[in-house]
Amino acid sequence: MEEAKRLHARLLRRGERRLQPLLLRVLAAGDLRYAALLIESFPSSPPSAPLHNRLLHALASARHQLLLPVFSRAHRLRLLAPLSFTLLFSASAAASSSSTRFAVCAHALLIRSGHFASGGDPFLASALVSFYAKNRLLAEARRVFDELPRRDAAVYNALLSAYARGGLIDAAEKLFEEMPEKNVVSWTAMVSGYAQNGRHEKAVETFLEMWEKGGVRPNELTVSSVLPACAAVGAMELGRKVERYARGKGLLKNLYVANALVEMYAKCGSIRGAWKVFQGIGQQRDLCSWNSMIMAFAVHGLWREALVLFHKLRGLNQMVLHCLESFWPVLMEAWWMKASCSSTR
């Protein structure tokens, strides 16, 4: 960053106004606030729309608080392009309520600008539907979806995922059937939606249809979504088949997949299978990994093993403070039941 500042000083001393190389240097250094100040330092000859979009992209990726002011300035200078709106909607989908209100106003600006008249930009359409969907404004998301003259898989998936997450399974099923093309994101949204809403048998059925009939290869999210459903319906054989697939594809490197597999084996009664996966996670183990394995030992009466693992966790870090509240009553109950059974013999 110091090198970029020295370059800026040299350009100022020479009276040069070449912003592009300097802005790119500053963005590469990661100083977004300095980059925004550079943009503002050219009031008489404002930078081009592509340069503004470079800055908007960096701010949106970082969820930076300067995103909205820079967007507003670009609007005043009439520099907004379809990409500008795409970046704003994408960032606002996971931001604060104030930026959500701003994005709703930006939608109005988008309509007035004419950039959205034909709906020809699939990235912009998908970002707008996703923005409304992730902010639980499903009626608005559906309205935008219905007004699009052309809909690609990304737009369908944005609305489908929102329906599934929101528990609107009937609406998700109807939209899923209407889709001209289904990809792994579409199938995963349905599997995850069924599993999260307690329809475990349907989740397993949909997964098998995707895998065996649809010819679609599951990804990490698909696998981590179907394994809890396998545990709920006791489909351990399918769980083992999924594990073999995940190992073959290297998906067990994903901690969510590994944790879901530990939980699946534990709930299906295979402590040996759960322990094997738990050991394979190694140093990547998080609180969920330890929770699942300790609970597996405890609920299957292996209270000694549960206590040993619990005390191992105590020496690691502050995670144990959370475990104390969650597991100490369970472990004590397991110990009490074991002791009671022993005393009656």
UniProtKB/TrEMBL annotation:
Per-repeat ranges for PPR: 152-186, 286-320
UniProt KW Transit peptide keyword: yes
UniProt-listed InterPro entries: PPR_At4g14850-like_plant, PPR_rpt, TPR-like_helical_dom_sf
Top-level taxon: Eukaryota
Alphabetic keyword roster: Repeat, Transit peptide
Keyword field contains Repeat: yes
NCBIfam families on file: PPR (TIGR00756)
Listed name of the protein: Pentatricopeptide repeat-containing protein
